[in-house]
Specification:
Oligomer: heterodimer
Shape of chain B: globular
Structural class of chain A: mainly alpha
Radius of gyration of chain A: 18 Å
Radius of gyration of chain B: 13 Å
Order of helices and strands of chain A: HHHH
Order of helices and strands of chain B: EHHHHHEH
Largest sheet of chain A: none
Number of helices of chain A: 4
Largest interface: A-B, 16 and 17 residues
Distance between the termini of chain A: 25 Å
Chain lengths: 142, 76
């Protein structure tokens, strides 16, 4: 497994764990009440912050553990990174458009913030999944 | 999206050149061993430039390393 593929796995695991933790906190706070009344801002900011810190720590640990491993990034790595980023960025756009339409329609701030966070999560996870599949299977040709 | 139709003789050429290892060839063309494995197994089509670098290592023409089915073979 190349260094870049390991980085994609870190992104996948950290993003999934952070969003699962956030969803668990929000659902446990709801307790049968409408979700829009649940205090979410602190939990959202903490999980985003924690996922960034966890990614940095995991990548640093990976670098220490595999000290002798090559950090070479070749043309296949760059093509796979571009493909993964393209898949991921589409969800950022979807999230932005959805948030804009929800704001225009007067939706509660809870839903607007959460649709943006959900699309960030999908962007990170699906981008990482695309990279892992491209590393494991045949790189697609158009 | 479709898998690559490019096939290659890299494995045979490595063995014909003193059983060159994948790691040796990867280092000589400046890619990771995993990328060389993907090329050798037909899971990745290299750029034209990388294809020439591989052919140059074996001192053979590009056609001796990489093969692409002609139109009549594609129709079958």
């Amino acid at each position: 497994m190349t260094h870049q593929e390991k980085r994609a796995w870190i992104m996948l695991v950290v993003s999934a764990a952070a969003y699962a933790a956030y969803a668990a906190v929000i659902l446990s706070r709801a307790g049968g009440h409408p979700l829009a009344r649940v205090p979410y801002a602190a939990a959202l900011l903490w999980t985003v912050g924690a996922s960034i810190v966890a990614s940095v720590v995991a990548e640093t640990a990976l670098g220490v553990v595999n000290r002798g491993e090559s950090r070479l990034k070749d043309e296949r790595d760059r093509q796979i990174a571009t493909l993964g980023d393209r898949v991921g960025s589409s969800f950022v756009v979807i999230g932005a458009v959805a948030a804009m339409l929800m704001a225009m329609a007067g939706w509660d701030r809870f839903w607007i913030a959460n649709v943006i966070y959900l699309c960030f999560f999908l962007s990170a996870v699906l981008g990482a999944v695309t990279k892992v599949i491209a590393y494991r299977k045949t790189f697609p040709q158009w | 999206m479709k898998p690559t139709r490019v096939t290659n003789s890299i494995r045979a050429l490595r063995f014909a050149h003193g059983e060159m290892t994948q790691a040796d060839l990867a280092e000589r063309i400046g890619v990771t061993r995993q990328t060389l494995i993907a090329i050798e197994q037909g899971r990745y089509s290299p750029s034209l430039e990388m294809a020439f670098r591989i052919a140059r290592v074996f001192k053979v023409p590009l056609d001796d390393v990489f093969h692409y089915p002609d139109a009549s073979e594609e129709d079958r």
